[in-house]
Amino acid sequence: MMSQVSQLEHETEKLRDNKLKYQMQKDGEVVSLTNRHETEVSELKSRLGAVTAAHSKTCQELQHLISTQHDLAARWKAESASLVSRYDGVVSDLRAQTTRYQDKIKELEVEVGDVAQSRKESLLEVEAERRTTQKAKLLLRSAEEKCDTLTRRIDALMKNEHDILTEKKHLRE
Q1: Which residues of the chain have pLDDT under 50?
Q2: How far apart, in whole angstroms, are the C-alpha atoms of residue 66 and residue 129?
Q3: CA nearest neighbour of 39 among 140, 121, 141
Q4: In whole angstroms, what is the distance from residue 159 CA to residue 132 CA?
Q5: Which of 32, 28, 36, 27 has its CA nearest to residue 133?
Q6: What pLDDT does 91 receive?
């Protein structure tokens, strides 16, 4: 009878040790997943910052180009008005200058198109990163649900163990 009690106590202790090891392992896995998620979020934030900075710089460049274009147009208009009244010969020079400005505007429009394409690509990258973050969140939720399920199973096993020990104790009495 004593050896059976001793054996049951030994088995109970062994089960507790196994349960503790299992719980520690699951806690380690949760910490690992949490750290991985935080690392990915940090990387995504830094990427977003870089894309935002590039977008801001592009917008500033566009504003500068537009401002320059407006300044050139205003200057050209003022000069042409005064020169037309005084010099007929200068008109041909201004037309040539206008052609050059139009070529420059076309070049600037091509550059603006390139910048717009770059912005679209950046937005697509940001969207892809957002989807990746959502996938990571789903994986984390799944892991948490699995952990909760395992915890409930362990609790049920512990309750069964307690019931068995209580029943054995009553049988001994």
Answers
A1: none
A2: 32
A3: 140
A4: 41
A5: 36
A6: 62
Q: Find where tokens 């049920």 sit.
A: 156
Structure tokens at 73: 């147009």
Question: At residue 134, what is the residue type?
Answer: Q
Q: What's the N-to-C CA distance of the chain in angstroms?
A: 12
Query: Could you tell me the two tokens for 128?
Result: 């892809």
What is the DSSP-derived secondary structure letter of residue 87?
-
Is 97 strand, coil or helix? helix
Q: With the C-alpha atoms ordered 158, 162, 163, 164, is the resulting torsion angle positive or negative?
A: positive
> 129 near 44, Cβ under 8 Å?
yes
HSE toward the beta carbon, residue 107, CA cutoff 13 A: 8
**Residues near 165 by beta carbon (within 8 Å), at least 6 away in sequence:** 8, 12
| pLDDT tens digits along 80-104 | 777 667 776 666 777 888 999 999 9
Residue linked to tokens 């000069």:
79
Question: Exposed, middle or buried: residue 153 (CB in 10 Å: 0-12, 13-18, 19+)?
Answer: exposed
Q: H helices within the chain, ranges in order?
A: 2-86, 89-172
